[in-house]
């Protein structure tokens, strides 16, 4: 029977060879020959060639597909590129899908990169292709670049990363979602885990706790945590850090103490979490107590991160003599993070002498000219500040001064209205956050269109009154924007939540949960 089938397919292919006078219909064979594909490409009938190969891949069992199917798909892609005639978005997406499903990812990537226009289907197709071969690092990079994202993109990863996703798959995807602060897709992954037979003892449970806490849903993180029969160190640390970053330092300290009572030995990361909680709450004495306990009670050596935390804690409180005393006793050389922490405290308290010392130390560690030359040599581009917000299962990304969003006019109109109200209530722009050598009026305009402000303004006009506006930023929030959002929250009577690279800021009725410690 198999021989007969092959003969039938072979005969059909031979009989279907096109003649110049009468082009064949697109569906003339399930196994078009290489000559057939080449002839269609020569005639510029790329759509017919793609349709034939796609139909063959779809209808024939895998064991019966010709071995040259991927090369045929690549031939179509090469011919289309050489023709100089754009395929158009629809045909490009079809060819991209064919290449990805045939495993021809280098060719799929070349086609994707050459497309003048891409839609969500284009991105999801390439993401699915990399997911199928298990390249989740490339998946994360692509997903981070997407101008618009939806839940399907991450469900694509889940469904294609393996026929039966296991704990490693779930943990890997949840970790990626944590970094992107994508709670919606994270809940979807949680659903996949439940259907796959969720194991509360597994490390994927810890990944769930981490994901929810990083996304700002500390209540859901706690619910998952409390369902774990025996939380591990990672889960305890996620809860401590989660409460600290979400503006609940007392709860962070309480969970740290509960961890000790449960007999779980903290590692240096857990101590960083609880010290950060003390820093953001201004609990200097408690922070010092915990810092000294690392060595005195737990027999651990202080790390550079611990020193950076305690110097940050003391300098934010203006206790510079104690900070310098601790630095003098360090057994290691202060790194750039410690000096940056000290410099931040000096800026708050206008300590020029120590601030200059910290700045000089930073320049010695990383001279500006050396860094610039290294960046030029490696073709490294400075990471741009970006902010994003999820509305109706779609993620909207904003860059400083960006005008590509379809509702740009509405967003700018909303900002102008808010800025007018703010100035009436006493707001004065802090133009020192603009480093360009321009007039004050231009500096004010630059501040007005920072990425986080664009995202918050969009959230205000795109979500129902009374619902919180939750925005995420890849860098530290601008100090002037921090002040502006206090006004925004009072003027609009909305809760505004901003997660920057440091922590969550919850603005409500004119104040922030961080207490201006961040």
Question: What percentage of residues falls in helices of 4 or more residues?
Answer: 55-70%
Output mean pLDDT.
79
Count of individual beta strands: 7
Strand content: 5-15%
How far is the first residue's CA from the last residue's CA?
A: 73 Å
User: For the largest beta sheet, what order do the strands appear in spatially?
Assistant: 1-3-2-4-5-6-7
**Major pleated sheet:** 7 strands, mixed
- Ranges where pLDDT stays below 50 over 5 or more residues in a row are 1-30, 59-67, 433-443
Number of helices: 26
Radius of gyration, in Å, reads 28 Å
Structural class of the helices, strands and pairings? Answer: mainly alpha
Name the overall outline: globular
Structure description:
This protein is mainly α. It has a domain at 387-512. It has helices spanning 2-15, 34-42, 46-59, 69-83, 89-101, 105-114, 120-132, 136-145, 151-160, 167-180, 183-195, 203-214, 218-226, 233-245, 249-261, 268-281, 284-296, 304-316, 320-328, 336-349, 352-365, 368-377, 408-424, 440-448, 451-462, 479-492, and strands spanning 148-150, 386-391, 394-399, 469-473, 496-499, 504-508, 511-512. The chain has a seven-stranded mixed β-sheet with strand order 1-3-2-4-5-6-7. The N and C termini lie far apart (73 Å).
